[in-house]
Amino acid sequence: IELRLRISDGELLGELQGYHEGEERNNFAISAMKIGAIALRQAQGRVDADTVRHEGERFIKDMGHALTKHQSEVTGQISNCLTEYFHPESGRFNERVKRLVDGDDGEIAQVIRGQIAGDGSELAQTLTAHVGTESPLMGMLNPKSSDGLIIQLSKSTEETLTEQRELILREFSLDNGEGVLSRTVSELTKKHGEVGEALENRIDEVVGEFSLDKEDSALSRLVRQVEKAQGQISSEFSLDEEGSALARMRRDLKEVLDAQTKENREFQVEVRERLAEMTARRKEAAKSTRHGIEYEDAVFEFIDKRSQGSGDIATSTGNSVGFIKNNKKGDVVIKLGPEHVAAGARIVIEAKDDKSYTIEGALAELEEARKNRGASVGLFVFSAISAPAGLETFKRFGSDLVVVWDKEDSVTDVVLDAGLSVAKALCVQSKSHSDDVGADIEAIEKAVLEIEKQAKGLDEIMTSANTIRNGADKILKRAEIMGKSISRQINILNEKVGSLR
Asked: What percent of the chain has pLDDT over 90?
């Protein structure tokens, strides 16, 4: 979808003017529209959520009324049932309980009285038969009866104690060979002799295990294991053994150092070749008769690409005559597009890769080019290798601008972009003075001054970058020194490892 919008809102204008006209500003506007669309979508979702919540609350309220009504009906039915059965005067439950426990005439009282009342009751007869004076139980408990329980218990206890006393005395008598005491004495005497003999034999066995005269003794086996382990350790740390750990470590270390040395050497060769190619290309380009023309083409290609993105028209005019007869001054002319506030304004650009130009000469040629091409603003572009000594990368002289741009270094693209932006701003300023256009001249002036200030900082950064580039030779020399040092350390390591033999 292609949209063409005309924006008059102050806040939106302030945000959009903070970006370069063209692709950068369009991308920002698209992002802002996307964020706004998402916000509107979220707001619509909030409205739907409020509707759902309102309907849910109404449903809960209706459900509460229905439940309350149902609870009242159930409570009434339960109350009626409870009243029918448990009413203190007319309830069925009270009537039944009253019949069961009503005084001496109640059903429960009559049953209990029949079971326990009077001497002829079933309870009285049962107790008399089992615990009465004539019952068998009372006859067994009578202490005067010869067959009573107490007399029988006394006789049985006395006989049992006498028997147990005699049995214990017989077990602890030495006259009884089968008694516990006699067997204990015999066992102690026998075990004492066996323990002494076994202890003597065990001491002899232990002494034998620590004797080197026996081949299979523990000490002899330990000595053989120690000697074997010592031999294995010595072989692992010997360079005479190809499979030893020290020999393998030496080979691995040598392979790593050789690979490192080879990589360093290849890196040095590659860096030298790259630097030589870059130097050769620069020298060849500097000697070429088309060097200046190639630089003008590069400037036009850059400006044309930027102009297409912003809706402006860039034209290469270096080979055509302008308003002055037989005058071809002015390599490129930019005509601001119809959507620009200064539509139709012209910017003339001079691109030079020639060391013979000075600042004064550049400004004089730029003034002539403005008249020849009918432009209100001029932009002079120096190449990095031909710019006069001490020239800042971005400098304004009234309606003219002078910048330094290196076509081989994309970092300097921002300088040429700044030159184009400031040139367009100066066109707006010139348009406002001549046609009374409502433009914020003070804001434009502040933006131009800030660009000049930041360009000066960029110039310092570029100087530092060139210093780093000039230090590349020092890095190569340092790499060569490090390679030689590594080779010396390899020789020292080989000598030290060889001395371990």
From this structure: 14
Residue pair 48/39 in contact by the 8 Å Cβ criterion: no
pLDDT over 60 (residue 497): no
Per-residue b or e along 196-211, where b marks 16 or more CB atoms closer than 10 Å to that residue's CB: eeeeeeeeeeeeeeee
List of residues 6+ apart from 336 with CB closer than 8 A: 312, 342, 343, 344, 345, 346, 347, 424, 427
| Tokens of residue 66, six digits | 């229905």
How many angstroms separate the most distant Cα atoms in the chain? 171
Determine phi and psi for 237, rounding to 5 degrees.
-105, 25
Q: What is the pLDDT of residue 111?
A: 74
Question: Closest Cα partner for 299 from 190, 218, 420?
Answer: 420
Taking only the tens place, the pLDDT of each residue in 121-153 is 777 777 777 666 667 666 666 666 666 667 777
Q: Give the model confidence (pLDDT) of 455-473 as tens digits.
A: 666 666 666 666 666 666 6
C-alpha 15/C-alpha 23 separation (Å) is: 15
Question: Kindly report the CA angle at 446 between 442 and 448, in degrees rounded to 5?
Answer: 115
Rounded Cα–Cα distance for residues 260 and 478 (Å): 15
455: which 2 tokens? 């360009």
Name the token pair of 451.
């660009």
Question: What is the rounded CA–CA span in Å between residue 240 and residue 501?
Answer: 7
Where helices occur in 313-440 by DSSP H, the ranges are 359-373, 413-435
The answer to whether the CB of 372 falls within 8 A of the CB of 403 is: no
Q: In what order do the strands lie in the sheet with 394-397?
A: 313-316, 332-335, 346-352, 377-383, 400-405, 394-397
Query: Quick one: DSSP state of residue 412?
Result: G
Pair 358, 388: CB distance under 8 Å:
yes
Write down the pLDDT at residue 289: 43
**pLDDT tens string 395-431:** 899 889 999 999 888 888 888 888 888 888 888 877 7
Give the global pTM. 0.38
How many residues belong to the chain? 501
Contact 403, 418 (CB under 8 A): yes
Residue environment code for 286-324, b if the CB has 16+ CB neighbours within 10 A, otherwise e = eeeeebeeebbbbbbebbbebbeebebebbbbbeeebee
